[in-house]
Amino acid sequence: MTDQTRNRRKVRVGVVVSDSRDKTVTVVIPNLTAHPRYDKIVRKSEKFHAHDEGNDANVGDTVRIMETRPLSKSKRWRVIEIVERAR
What we know:
By secondary structure, the chain is mainly beta. The chain has one helix and five strands, in the order αβββββ. The chain has one helix spanning about 5; strands spanning about 10-20, 25-35, 40-50, 60-65, 75-85. The chain has a five-stranded mixed barrel with strand order 1-2-3-5-4. A hairpin with a 6-residue loop joins strand 2 (about 25-35) and strand 3. It is globular and about 45 Å long.
């Protein structure tokens, strides 16, 4: 495995919907897809549990998360940066 392929990790941008756990946030990433038969646009979303080392992210913040090694049973992502703070 070369060094370049190892560092090509998935990066997503989403909104924090929960920050009640210590050093963990729940991020929702919305997705719009066309239904295969009816061609109607369908809204779907995916929830990710991300590691937030400094407990910086709050509910409503837009964050950028990156895929990482498994940190717990459900955490496979970590917060890279807070793109936009909630008002």
